[in-house]
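In response to reviewer comment 3 from the previous cycle, which asked for concrete evidence that the modeling workflow produces usable outputs, we include below a single protein chain processed end to end. The sequence was submitted unchanged, and the resulting structure tokens are shown without manual editing.
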Amino acid sequence: MYRNLDTLKQDTNSIVITTCYDPYRSSFINLNFELKQKKFFFNIATKGVFPGSLIKSSCEINEIRLGYRTKLKNIPAGCIIHNVTTNPNLKAQYIKAAGTSGQVLESGEKNCKNQTSFQKNY
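The workflow returned the following structure tokens.
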């Protein structure tokens, strides 16, 4: 069963219902419940986000917590990131494969420097 991921949701609050393995992507995905629209959707799982976790997605998030989604300019240097896009209207383009992550080195209004890494789990 192929599961469509919703990576474009903005200004939402959702709760992680469950985490499951997706063999088509060779990675884990979360089933979330969006609180305002009362709908279920899937997205790429973040390591350390468990069922019952609150996930926020907004352009203007003041606090950064594990699993929150916002613009790179709002993320302070040193934070670990994944599932990144250069255009808010496009799906994720970078750091989206299983086991990959990036770190924000420098952040500004128009530019952001990232460092990427890959971890193998044997």
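Residues 71-117 form one domain. We consider this sufficient to address the reviewer's concern, and the full set will be provided in the supplementary archive.
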